[in-house]
Amino acid sequence: MEQFFHLREHGTSVRKEIIAGLTTFLAMAYILAVNPSILGNVMNAGGVFVATALTSALATFIMGLWANYPIALSAGMGLNAYFAFTVCLGELGGDPGAFRVCLTAVFVEGVVFLLLSLFKFREKIINAIPSNLKYGISAGIGLFIALIGLSGAGITVSDEATLVNLGSFRSAPMVLALVGFLIILILVHRNIPGAVLIGILVTWFLGMGAQSVGWYDGPSVFPDFSAGLQLSGIKETAFQLDFRWAATHIAEFIAITFSFLFVDLFDTVGTVVGVADKAGLLDENGELPRVGRVFMADAVGTTVGACLGTSTVTSFVESSTGVAAGGRTGLASVTTGFLFLASLFLSPVFLAIPSFATAPALIYVGMLMVASAKKIHFEGEVSEVAGAYMALLIMPMTYSIANGIMLGVITWVVLKVFTGRIRDVNPVMWIVFALFALRIVSLILS
């Protein structure tokens, strides 16, 4: 373990890494319930569950064993909704075979990413991002994942008058999530190992008590084995690609594929930067060593996932919970990968953990990641400050990592041009700027 993962070099231990891997898994286990729920609108939900678990394990193993980073991967949120509702039920009119078109687009996207990773183009992108912008991205992701936790527990709710408002203190999920957050903070203050994981489990157990006395009346938080294991659905989703449709609708297929590729590319970049910065894995130049291997993990995961029957695979911001629990090496990812495999047989247990129980961990990690904002040189040149600020601001406000990076980069490049610092813009940033400009044009024309 020591020789393979270099644990001492990263100031960690086997125990810390295992706790971190378990913490990350608990924070993102919701995807095993949410992804089948979303994609189940257009394809076999049981097959999606199996495909999601297997693909997540494979991609996370590659991340841990080859890249040696504590970053877990699974089917990306937002991309699965685009798959089911925008394309299958929208653009393709709810055709029963529409999911095959989307799986084909995801497969092609994965192959493109494999090629881009081999030629290190994605690596050049992440290493070409200015340090100030990276810190803005990291802080923005902190606010973003905190917002995920807040909304998942009902602490923040939508409001027609004020857009967003505070939830009700009569709500068990809201109160329990706030209590869980305080528990984590108290445990951290007392230097209790595994504080984040303990906070999740205590909140979950409190939720069981709340449901038992009738205070919480939502979906059951108790494990239910009565339905048994349902793994045969994979037959309905595996190897269902439809290249025939793609060949006869080339322009439409390219547009669908580009949308998957675009969002995944920059979601992954943003997540990797944020998690790596919080874990102290960036080097003295603000660059991430072995980042090409990181991108190869999600490229392989996306390609294999499409073959098995799930949407685009990407790095998860919830990996930050494992980093907060002490994870610094790929051993944490390997642990998470094994738990994804175990979920195939213990899914009733893992899926019973409600979002309000993982919310405290997300809110806590968001607090830690926002600290990256103090590294932003706010007294510096305006393009550097504004670019970082836009990335930090837009991510939580639009509920999108990709949107934050897009407006952050565009702001940075435009200001460099109009402040006489065009020479600061390297070729890779020009390419990224052009891609974002095309994205904006496509949004205008859509």
What features would you highlight for this structure?
single chain; 446 residues; mainly alpha; two-stranded antiparallel ribbon; 3% strand
What is the secondary structure topology, with strand pairs?
Layout: H1 2-5, H2 14-28, H3 31-39, H4 45-67, E1 73-75, H5 79-91, H6 98-118, H7 121-128, H8 131-152, E2 156-159, E3 163-166, H9 172-189, H10 195-212, H11 243-248, H12 250-279, H13 291-308, E4 313-315, H14 319-324, H15 330-350, H16 355-370, H17 382-398, H18 401-418, H19 427-445
Antiparallel strand pairs: 1-4, 2-3
Describe the structure.
The protein is mainly alpha-helical and 446 residues long. The chain has one domain. 68% of the residues lie in helices and 3% in strands. The chain contains 19 helices and four strands. The protein has a two-stranded antiparallel ribbon with strand order 1-4. A two-stranded antiparallel ribbon has the order 2-3. Strand 2 and strand 3 form a beta hairpin. Helix 4 runs antiparallel to helix 13, helix 6 packs antiparallel against helix 13 and helix 18 crosses helix 19. The chain is globular.
Beta-strand segment tally: 4
Order of helices and strands: HHHHEHHHHEEHHHHHEHHHHHH
Q: How would you state the average pLDDT, rounded?
A: 87
Q: Name the shape in a single word.
A: globular
| SS-derived structural category | mainly alpha
In spatial order, strands of the major sheet run 1-4
Count of helical stretches:
19
- Ranges with pLDDT <50 over ≥5 residues? none
Beta-strand share of residues: under 5%
Largest sheet: 2 strands, antiparallel
Q: Tell me the domain tally.
A: 1
Residue share in helices? Answer: 55-70%
Radius of gyration: 21 Å
